[in-house]
Amino acid sequence: MFSYCIDPEVLGQFRWLSCYLTTGKHFAFYGSFATVLILLAITAPTALAFGFGGASIARSRIGPISWIGKGYIAIVRGVPDIAFFLFFVIALDQAFEFARHKVICPEWNEPIRQGSDFIVCKAAKLPLGNAPQWIHETYGFFLAVLTFAIVFGAFAANVIFGAMRAVPKAQLETAEAYGMSRRQTFWRILVPQMWVFALPGLSNLWMVLIKATPLLFLLGVEDIVYWARELGSTKNAKFTSYPHGDWRMQYFFFLLVFYLAFTKVSEVVLDRIMKRLTHGQATAGGEAQRKAAV
Amino acid sequence: MKKLILSTAALAISAGMAMAGSHSVVRMGTEGAYAPWNFINDAGEVDGFERELGDELCERAALTCEWVTNEWDSIIPNLVSGNYDTIIAGMSVTDERDEVIDFTMAYTPPDPSVFLAMDSGLDVTSGVIAAQTATIQAAFIANAGWSLVEFSTPEETVAAVRNGEADAVLADQSYLASFAGQDGLVLLERQEQIGGGVGMGIRESDGELREKFNAAIQSMKDDGTLNTLIEKWEVASTFQ
Known about the structure:
The complex is a heterodimer of chains A (294) and B (240). With 294 residues, chain A is mostly helical. Chain A is 70% helix and 1% strand.
């Protein structure tokens, strides 16, 4: 990047480092932090929506519907994440392509499964085979978001399901006594009150989600851990202008600092949200807040 | 305005034609962590023997190629499900892999596998040997009944020997050679002949693409450019 970087071998330590840290590879590393943050920013609300939906369905009074919700929670929670990421994403991708294939190429007469190969017509490929690399990457990224959302949504559904049951029965009965319909009771009484019970469990999930991003590389999305491992690995002078030994320790230490800072910030924010949600609730925390205010 | 519409239409038509051609862009999948075969250079791009070879093959076969990296563990599943069209990642041709995917003809002769250890007098049959998961070396150690520890990246296998977790690492000579002499690491005299040369992995249903690459590899073999490349990157012995 700097003009003096042409021959790094002769540079002093500081200048060498300034060159080393501004290689194209390092910029890819810095960029991957943005990838991870964007992923989290999109995944968290999506997973929460999946969780809320799953819990609501699981609560249904109609047997088969509630089984769907409970089945979703049980199955996803029971399967190891890594298995989900290896197989589910590929299955999801193939399901999309299969659906497009059926719509776009009805005249196709070759089998879609040939041995272990999965063949759909060219126009049904997702993304199209000749799409630029960034489209492939974005597509992979959204597949990852969806998979994360489904996996973490199941855990969130379980938490929210429990939280909904933790809301005191008396509250719901009172609502009914006031003549509210089931729907009104659900949205006006149950949902606002259940968050305070759900938040501890959800904040746990958030912490786990933050650390789950290395699973991304299974999908070809390069995250911070991938780059740290790649940059830190031994570099032989034959293949780079910046040879060095095994520096993974240094890079992973940097990641440690990043993750610790990130979890610290999360904790502070979650504490604030908890305080907000506790306000005016018929819980021990809400009672303590009320007394402190008096 | 008319011109604009016309050129847009022309663009749309040519794009449609490009799509009709069987492989307008060939996506080359590699690992990017196995120097000198393939690695990520300082600029963050795929580099190495296979990068240079792949680019030359694509030019000879008149294909437009694009490079993607993928983790070794999931490199075959992602090929068969169509996320990229070839694997060019120092992958040895084996019968097991051949059942799932097809290979082009080998573009390097078999490279012997060697042991890298801290102690030159090590008896490998009684030691703990590290190898990368899902490689011919890992399968070889498992079959021989020695103690095997597997790691998902090549780098970790060498690190395991350095920090004493394993007594030796078994991998391709070309990969381990650059580590010999560093931090007291030495190559053992014992070598193993496993694997049948390195080829490009291609979907079984993609015979046409395979033929194109076969022809390109053959032409590079014939005019000696392949041997020159092999010598330049020191990845294996040359073809006779």
